[in-house]
From TrEMBL:
EC number(s) recorded for this UniProt protein: 1.17.1.8
Active site: H140 (proton donor/acceptor), K144 (proton donor)
Domain (Dihydrodipicolinate reductase N-terminal): residue spans on this chain: 8-111
Name of the protein this chain belongs to: 4-hydroxy-tetrahydrodipicolinate reductase
Length: 252
């Protein structure tokens, strides 16, 4: 458990599109960063344990392949972990869950406040419209490596939770073949510099409804990540938290 009003913040993936914005938002609280290329002048190191030892909390917006290693390094150092990286496989997610038994971990596929609210609405509509076909469409910039986006998957999980059904049994990533009753479908587009668009559709024979979110500026994620880091670094016990926790309680 950490107690600090001025936490020392590290950024894993500090050279990336989001990591560089997080570093700007952190300002004087930035303690250093993690990259495959060291830069001593900016306190950028290549070793996760070294960074963790000099930080109270690390914002991780790097690459899914690094997650199991980060989980061990941050847990050993007792450093809180804000994890925004998406595209995790089951092994990586298990490593996150394990680390959260030792340190405070806030995992969020999307740090936007409005998108976090959309997840609650998705759950509510999923429960209220159990017979409607749920389809999730997402569009991102051409550099994105994972599909569907982590946010699309989180929206799908929220709908499944509202319906009280196991997500893995109802999720349909493939566009081929008929959609079975109760399916939650996914579709992805990639192109240009689209920051992040998500639409959740519920279709019936005689009506449909859509929840839409557009991220217009990547800074919305960076600001959210900093909010999460402050919330987590202040006084959180070991455990696995979500963005909704940081937003609900950010005034306490
Ligand atoms: N939770 C949220 O709100 C958001 C989450 N994201 C997620 O954050 C992650 C990063 O996104 P983004 O900043 O756009 O990505 P970038 O590719 O721009 O940045 C990722 C950084 O990770 C480092 N890296 C380490 N290992 C690898 C590897 N094997 N392959 C590629 N990069 C590697 C690279 O730095 P170096 O070369 O210096 O090692 C790179 O700059 C993604 O998973 C994305 O989905 C993105 C936006 C919002
Ligand atoms: O890679 C991105 O850019 C984004 N990734 C996150 C995701 O996979 O959901 C969040 C946001 O949509 C931008």
């Amino acid at each position: 458990m950490t107690h600090s009003s001025s936490p020392r913040i590290g950024i894993a993936g500090i050279t990336g599109r989001l990591g560089s914005l997080c570093a700007q938002e952190a300002g004087p609280l930035l303690a250093g960063g993690l990259s495959r290329h060291a830069d001593p002048a900016r306190n950028i190191v290549t070793d996760a344990s070294t960074l963790a030892q000099s930080c109270d909390v690390i914002i991780d917006v790097s690459h899914a392949s690094l997650v199991p290693h980060h989980a061990r390094a941050f847990a050993e150092a007792g450093c809180a972990w804000v994890l925004g990286t998406t595209g995790l496989d089951k092994t990586a997610q298990a490593a996150v869950n394990d680390a959260s038994k030792t340190i405070a971990v806030l995992q969020a596929a999307n740090f936007s406040p409005a998108l976090t609210m959309l997840l609650a609405l998705a759950r509510e509509l999923g429960a209220a419209l159990p017979d409607y076909d749920a389809e999730i469409a997402e569009t991102h910039h051409r550099q994105k490596v994972d599909a569907p986006s982590g946010t699309a998957l989180a929206i799908g999980r929220a709908v499944a939770a509202g319906r009280n059904v196991p997500f893995d049994q109802v999720a349909r990533m493939d566009q081929n073949g008929k959609r079975p009753d109760g399916a939650i479908g996914f579709a992805s587009l990639r192109g240009g510099q689209v920051v992040g668009e998500h639409d959740l559709h519920f279709y019936a024979a005689d009506e449909d409804i859509t929840l839409s979110h557009r991220a217009l500026d990547r800074r919305v994620f960076a600001r959210g990540a900093l909010k999460a880091a402050h919330w987590l670094a202040h006084h959180r016990d070991a455990g696995l938290y979500g963005m909704e926790d940081a937003l609900r309680k950010h005034t306490d």
